[in-house]
Amino acid sequence: MRKDSPRWVEISRSEYDHERAGLDALGGLIPDAAPYRLWTNFEFQDSQGTWNEVDALVLGRGRLH
């Protein structure tokens, strides 16, 4: 998947070179076609109030990774 693809949503840019390199490698493995989507570098708060960091969330064919 191309980094400039509308299917790849980078919520915030990683400040670490090794993380950016890893995400670029991951993007190279994911088809740039439906139904695939990639969201990177975001946080969410769980029901207990704890913040969790997600480096990459991939929607694939029938699966969420």
Write the layout of secondary structure elements.
Elements: E1 8-10, H1 17-29, E2 37-45, E3 51-60, E4 63-64
Q: Could you please describe the fold and organization of this structure?
A:
This protein has a 4-stranded mixed beta sheet with strand order 1-2-3-4, with helices on one face. It has one helix at 17-29, and strands spanning 8-10, 37-45, 51-60, 63-64. It is built from 1 helix and 4 strands. It has one domain (8-64). A hairpin with a 5-residue loop joins strand 2 (37-45) and strand 3. The protein has 65 residues and is α+β, with helices and mostly antiparallel strands. Helix content is 20%, strand content 37%.
The amount of beta strand, in percent, is 35-45%
Distance between the ends: 16 Å
Q: Choose one word for the global shape.
A: globular
Largest sheet entry:
4 strands, mixed
Count of structural domains: 1
Count of helical regions: 1
Q: Helix coverage percent of residues?
A: 10-25%
Radius of gyration over all CA atoms, rounded: 12 Å
What is the mean predicted local confidence, pLDDT? 96
| Beta-strand segment tally | 4
Oligomer kind: single chain
Poorly predicted segments: none
**Alpha-beta classification:** alpha+beta
Spell out the helices and strands N to C.
EHEEE
Order of the strands making up the biggest sheet? 1-2-3-4
Please tag this protein with its features.
alpha+beta, 65 residues
Structure described in brief:
This protein has one helix and four strands.
